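Lecture notes, part 5. Sequence design as translation. It can be helpful to think of inverse folding as translation between two languages: the language of shapes and the language of residues. The source text, in structure tokens, appears below.
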């Protein structure tokens, strides 16, 4: 698999350099039959039984309808030499065992076995197209929210049919066994999680949340003085202190925090939400668990994990970023200087 990824990566870079329209590879009908049987043995849905697609992005397979025997006969006819990979003749891996041992037995039962399997895969591909249109309608109806990093679905609609769940999760790298386990988790217990190589599926209050695992912030960033700071490419913090004159007005925008600069001690710190965090929400007198505050704001568990806070040198939360400032640091009539933070 590692060699395959390198090979296709090289082909794709070459295609871009040449501004070519596609990459033709020589998979033939016998390869298709082996792929279908491998997928069947491993356990698969309709997509796995369709085998390799004639076109997958820029990868083209013009020989899928032609058998290896027909290709060899044509090469002999035109006098073209060719090389057979000797490792293909050793029954050591699944594909070779099928090629050398199982498929010949199938041909003993029916000489047209390979042709029939390939034809069935083609028919199933047409059926899959029809099903996918139907599933996409269901997916669209179940979609609650969508961002660049996250998709939220109504779990009751998605879990009505296992293949609908498979249709949604397969592109995100979830294995069929995981998808089956998720489907049979009928209790829809909040907090249950499953992970693929790059994504996490979270069950949260009757909803399925699929998000890029890397989208959960883990970094802490110090803000030692006034200035502009880059937390990541799409998030920047600007910190400045201004004199409070008669014309000053507190900015009433959730992306801004206006605080009494003389009550805040530098350096500041931007960090992710932590279990046990407390602060005094603006307008309140007593402290409150940040987790309870976010729950009251109807934030999902994913959104809680993404929540950033700004603290002062004492570790006190002065701003729940883009949500609420801490009442202890609010601007009052006696405030002389205002600390403005925006992101």
């Amino acid at each position: 698999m590692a060699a395959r990824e390198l090979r296709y990566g090289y082909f794709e870079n070459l295609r871009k350099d040449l501004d070519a329209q596609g990459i033709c590879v020589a998979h033939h009908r016998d390869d298709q039959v082996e792929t279908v049987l491998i997928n069947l043995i491993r356990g698969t849905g309709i997509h796995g039984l369709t085998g390799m697609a004639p076109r997958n992005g820029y990868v083209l397979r013009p020989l899928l309808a032609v058998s290896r025997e027909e290709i060899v006969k044509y090469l002999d006819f035109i006098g073209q030499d060719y090389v057979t990979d000797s490792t293909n003749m050793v029954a050591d891996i699944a594909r070779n065992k099928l090629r050398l041992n199982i498929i010949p037995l199938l041909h003993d039962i029916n000489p047209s076995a390979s042709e029939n399997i390939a034809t069935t895969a083609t028919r199933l591909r047409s059926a899959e197209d029809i099903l996918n249109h139907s599933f996409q309608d269901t997916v669209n109806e179940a979609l609650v929210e969508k961002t660049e990093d996250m998709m939220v679905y109504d779990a009751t609609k998605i879990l009505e049919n296992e293949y609908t769940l498979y249709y949604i999760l397969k592109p995100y790298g979830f294995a069929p066994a995981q998808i089956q386990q998720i489907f049979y988790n009928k209790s829809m217990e909040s907090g249950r999680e499953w992970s693929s190589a790059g994504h996490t599926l979270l069950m949260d209050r009757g909803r399925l949340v699929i998000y890029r695992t890397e989208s959960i912030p883990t970094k802490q960033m110090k803000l030692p003085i006034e200035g502009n700071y880059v937390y990541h490419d799409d998030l920047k913090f600007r910190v400045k202190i201004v004199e409070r004159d008669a014309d000053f007005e507190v900015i009433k925008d959730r992306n801004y925090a206006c605080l009494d600069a003389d009550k805040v001690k530098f350096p500041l710190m931007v960090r992710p939400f932590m279990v046990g965090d407390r602060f005094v929400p603006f307008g309140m007198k007593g402290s409150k668990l940040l987790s309870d505050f976010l729950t009251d704001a109807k934030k999902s568990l994913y959104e809680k994990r993404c929540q950033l806070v700004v603290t002062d040198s004492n570790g006190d939360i002065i701003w729940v970023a883009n949500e609420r400032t801490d009442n202890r640091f609010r601007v009052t009539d006696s405030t002389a200087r205002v600390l403005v933070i925006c992101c």
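The translated text above is only one of many valid answers, since several sequences can fold into similar shapes. The mean pLDDT is 93.
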